[in-house]
Amino acid sequence: MEVGRRMNERRQMGALEAEVLELLQSSAEAMTPGHVLTRLGDTLAYSTVVTVLTRMHDKGLLGRVKQGRAFAYRPVADRHGLTARRMRQALDADPDRRAVLAQFVGDLSTGDEEILRHLLDGRQP
């Protein structure tokens, strides 16, 4: 029962991270935990927001700067950049890059393969 509860909490934390990331990406400026908490609604504890922001920073998803007594956070890249970063991290995690890339390319749709070919050739898709 304990394991199931922890798995559920982990899924909820992932959903919260996604919500926080979306909020930060829609903001023109970096946000402190207090600002994030206000925008998300006051159903969360301040410490929960700080924990989520800190973990996202540790994962390399967010940058932060000191703003008064707190840090202000912003995404290190836009949505496309973060997706590309996750793809690179997955590739870097496997020692056989060639096999991973071959599998990836082999699984692409015809349209995606054409886009990739154009990009590799330096042309617009």
From TrEMBL:
One of the GO biological process terms: negative regulation of DNA-templated transcription
Record protein name field: BlaI/MecI/CopY family transcriptional regulator
Domain of life: Bacteria
Family listed: Belongs to the BlaI transcriptional regulatory family.
Keyword set includes Transcription: yes
Keyword annotations of the record: DNA-binding, Transcription, Transcription regulation
GO molecular function, one term: DNA binding
Organism: Streptacidiphilus fuscans
